[in-house]
Structures are given as structure tokens and as C-alpha cells.
């Protein structure tokens, strides 16, 4: 028979192994991923309706796990915002965009990249520091960096307005993202100094379905026009949707009809191909 001490020892070793193999909590998992910089940026082309040209892209965050699998932001953005990890993640996006897109942006001054700004950064204006530091010495012009803030991110109208106004003074264009999904009306919009409105894909997807909500999209377009804002439609998946939007004077569109979000080399190739057309 084995002495009790050895049995206890084996038990202890097995326990330690079990604990070290246990899954981390989602937050600890995300924290570790941020520390290890397991994130990349994909670029989704934005198309000018009138010319069919790619005039820019939206930078979209992706979590690339060590096993190579890619996690979409819907699974971690909310947690990142609650925990404050969205701040280092935003820094990472800005740095990556500057590093990866610098050469292309210097070659074509009309090209722009749009980044997503979190509510916290809209509230404090921290994003302005982050962006100006990243652009310093890069020879990328402020006009080439657009920022998208969601309606939710502009709930605190006074501080959001200040951040928007300062960003525009610096030369950036500002877009209101996911428009129509929250509490938005004409009065709210008039209080926010903006350049563009992004129509959420939930409205675009109603085009041609006969759904009652498809009237909402006409209303949004009319509202944006009366405020002289550029309009970007997102989630455009069909030719019918694109034609409908183009007929109504929507300026820009983004969606799987044109392209999915792409890794940088593929985006640059896509952009060059639309120039050649
Ligand atoms: P969003 O800003 O509304 O971005 C558009 C989302 O629609 C993207 O999802 C894009 O991949 C998807 N999409 C584009 N075209 C189509 C289409 O034709 N059909 C369909 N079904 N989907 C389309 P994604 O990349 O999963 O991002 C989800 C959200 O996560 C974004 O929504 C944005 O709110 C947030 N997000 C992504 N990157 C960042 C980031 O760097 N910072 C912050 N704060 N939020 C980010
Ligand atoms: Ca966006
Ligand atoms: Ca959006
Ligand atoms: Ca959206």
C-alpha cells in the first residue's frame, strides 16, 4: 500500500492541473488578449454611389485568437466598453490604421479611413489626443481620418458636441453611426455638429420587402438632406437596395454587395481595382 503522504501529493498535483486548465472568465480572457495584442483591423470599402469608386474604408476590429480563429466585435465590444478595455483597443486600431494605411493614404489624398469611437471617448474627448499623437509626423492629413460615433455614444449631448466640434476643427469628418436605432430626431441631430449620417443596416434591409419600416428610410434620407449631411448607407447586400439608395441621392454605400471587410493587402488591391475601372 502507498503511504498517505504520496496519495495526498498526487491529489494535490491533480488539483493544480485542473485549476490551471480551467477556462478564464470572459473578462480575464479579454484582458489577456489585449495585453498580448491579439487584435487586427479589417477594412470595409466605402463606395461613392455616383462613380462606383472606393473612396475610403471603415476600420473594423477583429480578435484573432492564438488558434487562428477570428472573433467578431459583437462578442467582445460590450465587455470592452464596460471594463474600459475599449480604450487600449481604440489606441490599437488607430496605431494599426496609421501603420498599415500610411503609404496608400499619402498616395491618394482623397482616400479616407473611418474609425469607430466609443462612448467613453466621445464623453471625455480623449480620442482627440490619441489621434493627433498617432497622426503627428505620419504625413496623413486629418481630413483622411473620419470618426464614427454612435447615437448611444452621443447621449451626453453637451460633452459629445464639444468632442465633435473639436474634432471638426482639427479637420476630421464626423459621422453619426447606426442612425435610427436609438433615440434620434431632428432636434437631437441639429444639436450635434456632424458631417455625415450612417443609415443602419436594419433599415437598408427593409428596402423592397414592403415592410412598413421601409418608409422610415425615406424619412431618414430627407432628414439628412435637410441638414445638408452626407449619407452613408451600410449593410447594402443587393443591387435592388443599391439602386433604391442611389435614386434617392444617398452619397456613399458600404456592404457585402461591394465587399466584406478585408485584411489590409486585400483592401488595397480592391481599392486599386476600382480606380482602374
Ligand atoms: P458598425 O459600426 O455598425 O459596423 C458595421 C458592421 O456591419 C460590421 O460588423 C460589418 O462587418 C457589418 N456589415 C457590413 N456590411 C454588411 C452587410 O452587407 N451585411 C451584413 N449582414 N453585415 C454587414 P462588425 O465588423 O462585426 O462590427 C460590429 C460592430 O462592432 C460595429 O458596428 C461597431 O459598432 C463595433 N466595432 C467594430 N470595430 C470597432 C472599433 O474599433 N471600436 C469600437 N468602439 N467599436 C467597433
Ligand atoms: Ca461604424
Ligand atoms: Ca454602423
Ligand atoms: Ca450597425
From TrEMBL:
Keyword Thylakoid appears in the UniProt entry: no
Topological category with respect to the lipid bilayer: Multi-pass membrane protein
Coarse class of the protein's main subcellular location: membrane
One example GO MF annotation: cyclic-guanylate-specific phosphodiesterase activity
Residue ranges of domain EAL in the record: 23-275
Any one of the GO CC terms: plasma membrane
EC number: 3.1.4.52
Keyword list, A-Z: c-di-GMP, Cell membrane, Hydrolase, Membrane, Transmembrane, Transmembrane helix
Catalysed reactions listed for this entry: 3',3'-c-di-GMP + H2O = 5'-phosphoguanylyl(3'->5')guanosine + H(+)
Keyword Mitochondrion on entry: no
Top-rank lineage group of the source organism: Bacteria
Record's subcellular location: Cell membrane
Protein name as annotated: cyclic-guanylate-specific phosphodiesterase
Organism: Herbaspirillum seropedicae (strain SmR1)
Amino acid at each position: 500500500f502507498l503511504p498517505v503522504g504520496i496519495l495526498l501529493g498526487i491529489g494535490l498535483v491533480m488539483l493544480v492541473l485542473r485549476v490551471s486548465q480551467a477556462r478564464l472568465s470572459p473578462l480575464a480572457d479579454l484582458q489577456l488578449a489585449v495585453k498580448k495584442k491579439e487584435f487586427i483591423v479589417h477594412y470595409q470599402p466605402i463606395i461613392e454611389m455616383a462613380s462606383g469608386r472606393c473612396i475610403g474604408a471603415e476600420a473594423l476590429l477583429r480578435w484573432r485568437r492564438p488558434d487562428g480563429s477570428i472573433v467578431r466585435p459583437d462578442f467582445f465590444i460590450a465587455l470592452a466598453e464596460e471594463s474600459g478595455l475599449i480604450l487600449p483597443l481604440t489606441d490599437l486600431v488607430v496605431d494599426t490604421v496609421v501603420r498599415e494605411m500610411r503609404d496608400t493614404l499619402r498616395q491618394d489624398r482623397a482616400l479616407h479611413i473611418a474609425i469607430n469611437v466609443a462612448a467613453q471617448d466621445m464623453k471625455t474627448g480623449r480620442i482627440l489626443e490619441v489621434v493627433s499623437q498617432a497622426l503627428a509626423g505620419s504625413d496623413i492629413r486629418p481630413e483622411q481620418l473620419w470618426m464614427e460615433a454612435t447615437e448611444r455614444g452621443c447621449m451626453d449631448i453637451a460633452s459629445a458636441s464639444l468632442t465633435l466640434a473639436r474634432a471638426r476643427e482639427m479637420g476630421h469628418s464626423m459621422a453619426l453611426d447606426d442612425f435610427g436605432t436609438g433615440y434620434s430626431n431632428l432636434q437631437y441631430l441639429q444639436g450635434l455638429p456632424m458631417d455625415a449620417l450612417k443609415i443602419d443596416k436594419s433599415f437598408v434591409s427593409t428596402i423592397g420587402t414592403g415592410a412598413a419600416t421601409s418608409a422610415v428610410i425615406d424619412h431618414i434620407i430627407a432628414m439628412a438632406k435637410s441638414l445638408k449631411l452626407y449619407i452613408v448607407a451600410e449593410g447594402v447586400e443587393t443591387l435592388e437596395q443599391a439602386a433604391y439608395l442611389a435614386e434617392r441621392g444617398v452619397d456613399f454605400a458600404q456592404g457585402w454587395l461591394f465587399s466584406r471587410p478585408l485584411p489590409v493587402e486585400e483592401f488595397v488591391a480592391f481599392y486599386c481595382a476600382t480606380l482602374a475601372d
